[in-house]
Every structure is written in C-alpha cells, then in structure tokens.
Amino acid sequence: MRILSFYFGHDANVTLLDEGEVVCVLEKERLTRVKHDAGPMDLEAILEEYGWSPDSVDLVVFNPYLRPGRTGNASLWRSRASATTSVPTTSRTAGAARPRGA
Q: In a structure prediction context, what are the per-residue pLDDT tens digits for the chain, which is 102 residues long?
C-alpha cells in the first residue's frame, strides 16, 4: 500500500510510505532554508522524483486544520474526495493497537 501524507501548516512536510517502509520524509524548511516554513509543496514533483504517479497512491493522509495565521483566522482545507477517520485494515494493521479514541 502506497501512502502519501502531508501537512502544509507550521513545519510543512511530505512523507511517502510504501508497504509500511519510509520512502522519503521532506520538510519544507530543509528545502527553502526558512525556519518553520509553511505552505504548499509541489506534490506532483515530489511524487515524480521518487518514481510515483498520483494514480499509484492508495491512501492520502492530511491534516485539514491549519494553525491560525497572523489574522487569527483558522484555515480549513476542503477535499473533493470522501474522507474517513477509520484506519484501513491491511495485513500490517490487522490486530495492531488503535489510537486512543479511535
């Protein structure tokens, strides 16, 4: 199972997992040299760099809640895809401990 995880808030990052193994973890501040950099990263370029395509990703995980900006307003990202709060059951997750409250 290929998993793409990203967060574009404070300390923006992208993580790629393939069959439970870490393929890459990219922190935006390491690329821009701006401490605690936030904001979108070029997901298509990152996927291409590691030989992935958007169609090869099985699961996308992201945090839709961003910290309040300088205006004090919190941002909420909206996805066109259906969302789930459950953990998919695979051979790796079957019988694994679930997070508290899940």
A: 999 999 888 788 999 999 999 999 999 888 888 888 888 888 899 999 999 999 999 999 987 665 555 565 555 555 555 555 555 555 444 444 444 454
From CA 17, how far away is CA 88, in angstroms rounded? 14
Domain 2-61 homologous superfamily, CATH: ATPase, nucleotide binding domain (3.30.420.40)
Residues comprising the chain, all counted: 102
The model's pTM: 0.62
What is the Cα 95 distance to its own chain's centre?
A: 24
CA atoms of 1 and 17, how far apart (whole Å): 8
